[in-house]
Design goal:
heterodimer, A: 10 strands, B: eleven-stranded mixed sheet, two-stranded antiparallel ribbon, elongated
């Protein structure tokens, strides 16, 4: 479960302070699939970074499964993120020079799966499931964009996190790959019972989610269920 | 497949081959420069020591002791004047002397020096009880005048074989086409070829010293006739006047001789007595070479200091390269943090990248130093016949260890910079 209480986030550009995020209250329950939409600069990516503990909010609290991450030290936040969360980005997703399997194994190792065999089994099973059985030993720099995003999904889910945070993972994909990647991600999230927070610009995808959160310059503009046919 | 931090660091540097290759090359060349200077210095010392091992005390005419050593042992430089034969005989007959070996120099064949000596030359040993230093591999030793034994390199370079004949030329240097310098009337016959010794002896031609006497007696007679027959104004231009140090006036003496006294006390007595006499000087090769080594050592120290400076520059370059690569890889480090790597993980990956670079740079540099040394050894061997032996330079170990420690410091500094700034700046970068 994700709880956000009176969170604001600002940053300074010269002498000017810019407020990029303001959320008075937000609760995302277990298994919910939330789409976050809004114009550029409305704080969608910042919201993902704050939930992940990659950056701390200027004010307010973020509580993950009952743990206030603002009260944790950086290494404790690292551990919490590694064990309970899976992250997918639009770009900047995989480590070049490593194979698809190695990218997934890295996340498995840092998430705390101690047994080497278990890590390997989980990683290969997911890559098989995502149709990458003959691409898992290829350097990720040689994969197509769609394949890269599927590897990123495998990496985000290999340790069975309770929360999956996806920052526009389908933004640069063609329509076929967009559908494939989203379907696979949603299917896996449903199977694992994980909470999904999915940032997107694409309003044609919203019907796949249980909830749509719209951010605007002043904060949360709306928090609703998707409209049928959206 | 297990991704240890070592493997991750390795993959990171492998993913940028140009930067990695250049960095490793900078370290390798600097290390090779530093190591090959000290190795060459030590190699030359060892080569000279090995070459001079069979020679005890050298006696020659008054003059430069270095020139005497270089001419007699290394077959370099010009001979000093001659020692009177009577003086040689007197030392030979001295009861304190165990053995003497005469050396007459002054002629050459195609630049290879002809050394007049006697059969005792073949009994010389690097130390008491050791086998003879100079052994015949083909044919036999010379037994009479105008029989010659060739050093291994002389035989190889000139193509002369046992049974072949050649004529010597006057002087220590070969003058192509100057037939007037050649002793055509009295050719030498090759009777033996020596086993390679990897010393200057390999570049010599060894004959009985009486050959020199006869050759120069004959020349003197010819010149005497020519002087009598020539108009007085041409006398000064007549070649082979056989006087002065360059000609080596061998009909009345020898150029130098080796003395093996019976013991240390006898050695010191003879050393002092000979040096006190007006006829000759006695030189202990070890002492003279010690002075030369000091000069070589000083030169090597200066070069070594320069090499350390080059190495310091290399370390700074690596530092900058690493820092720059951190800037480039900041996104990767951010991603690593995002998927669960702790700051320490990233710290160690960056630090181990530097360790890899230094380790590989040092490894290649160490190997390269032997390649450089091999080239130097070949060049010096060809030009001077001083065989620089291959050896394991134990001194290199601490230098490499020191450099690795320097590399670790660089590693920790760059890793700390990453550790301190990675997430904040990555996020700023994302926001921008």
């Amino acid at each position: 479960m994700i709880e956000i209480v009176e969170v604001t986030h600002t940053y300074r550009v010269g002498k000017e302070t810019i407020r990029v995020l303001e959320i008075p209250s937000l609760v995302v329950g277990p298994g919910e699939r939330v789409a976050v939409v809004g114009p550029s600069g409305s704080g969608k990516s910042t919201l993902i970074q704050i939930i992940a503990g990659l950056t701390l909010p200027t004010t307010g609290r973020v509580i993950i499964d009952g743990v206030d991450i603002g009260a944790l030290g950086e290494s404790q936040r690292d551990r919490l993120r590694a064990r309970r969360m899976g992250l997918i980005f639009q770009a900047l997703n995989l480590l070049g020079g490593f194979t698809a399997l190695e990218n997934v194994l890295m996340a498995a190792k840092w998430s705390g799966i101690k047994n080497k065999f278990e890590r390997l089994q989980a990683a290969t099973a997911l890559l098989h499931r995502l149709g990458l059985n003959d691409r898992m030993h290829v350097d990720v720099r040689r994969l197509s964009h769609g394949e890269k995003q599927r590897v990123a999904i495998a990496r985000a889910l290999v340790h069975q996190p309770s929360i999956v945070l996806a920052d526009e993972p389908t933004a640069s994909l063609d329509s076929v790959n967009k559908t494939v990647v989203l379907d696979e991600l949603l299917a896996l999230v449903r199977e694992k019972g994980a909470t999904l927070v999915f940032v997107t610009h694409d309003t044609t995808l919203l019907s796949a989610f249980t909830r749509v959160l719209t951010l605007g310059p002043g904060g949360v503009v709306s928090d609703r269920s998707p409209v049928p046919g959206e | 497949m297990e991704l240890s931090l070592w493997v991750m660091a390795w993959r990171q540097i492998r993913s940028r081959p140009v930067v990695t290759g250049t960095t490793i090359m900078i370290i390798a060349v600097s290390v090779a420069l530093m190591l090959s200077i000290s190795m060459a210095s030590e190699g030359i010392k060892r080569g000279i020591s090995e070459s001079s091992a069979p020679y005890g005390m050298i006696v020659g005419s008054k003059g430069s002791e270095t020139q005497l050593i270089f001419n007699t042992i290394f077959l370099l430089d010009r001979p000093l004047g001659n020692v009177p034969w009577d003086f040689y005989e007197a030392i030979k007959a001295d009861p304190r002397v165990q053995a003497v070996v005469p050396f007459a120099l002054g002629d050459n064949f195609q630049g290879y020096r002809i050394v007049g000596t006697d059969e005792r030359f073949f009994e010389m040993r690097s130390r008491p009880g050791a086998p003879p230093a100079f052994v015949i591999s083909q044919g036999r030793r010379f037994e009479r005048p105008f029989e010659a034994v060739l050093g291994a390199k002389t035989a190889q370079d000139t193509g002369l074989r046992v049974g072949d004949t050649f004529v010597s030329s006057h002087g220590t240097d070969h003058h192509e086409g100057l037939e007037s310098d050649e002793h055509r009337e009295m050719p030498y016959t090759v009777v033996g070829i020596m086993r390679p010794t990897h010393t200057p002896v390999d570049r010599g031609i060894f004959v009985h010293y009486e050959s020199y006497w006869r050759l120069h007696e004959h020349e003197s007679a010819v010149e005497h006739d020519a002087i009598r027959a020539a108009p007085s104004d041409q006398v000064a231009d007549t070649p082979h006047m056989l006087s002065g140090s360059d000609s080596g006036d061998l009909s009345h003496g020898i150029t130098a001789f080796l003395v093996h006294p019976k013991g240390y006390v006898e050695l010191m007595q003879l050393y002092q007595e000979i040096n006190a006499s007006p006829h000759a000087q006695a030189v202990l090769p070890g002492q003279v070479l010690g002075k030369i080594f000091e000069q070589i050592g000083f030169g090597a120290e200066v070069l070594g200091a320069i090499a350390w400076l080059v190495l310091a520059l290399a370390v700074i370059t690596v530092c900058l390269t690493l820092y720059q690569s951190i800037e480039v890889k900041r996104k990767d480090f951010y991603l690593m943090r995002a998927i669960g790597a702790s700051r320490l993980h990233v710290f160690f990956v960056v630090a181990l990248e530097a360790v890899w670079l230094f380790f590989l740079g040092e490894l290649f540099g160490w190997a390269l130093s032997y390649v450089v040394y091999a080239f130097l050894a070949y060049g010096i061997g060809e030009r001077l016949s001083i065989a620089m032996p291959f050896f394991f330079d134990a001194g290199a170990a601490w230098k490499l260890a020191l450099l690795l420690i320097g590399g670790l410091v660089v590693a920790v500094i760059t890793a700390f910079l990453t550790y301190r700034t990675q997430l904040d700046s990555a996020l700023r970068m994302e926001a921008s």
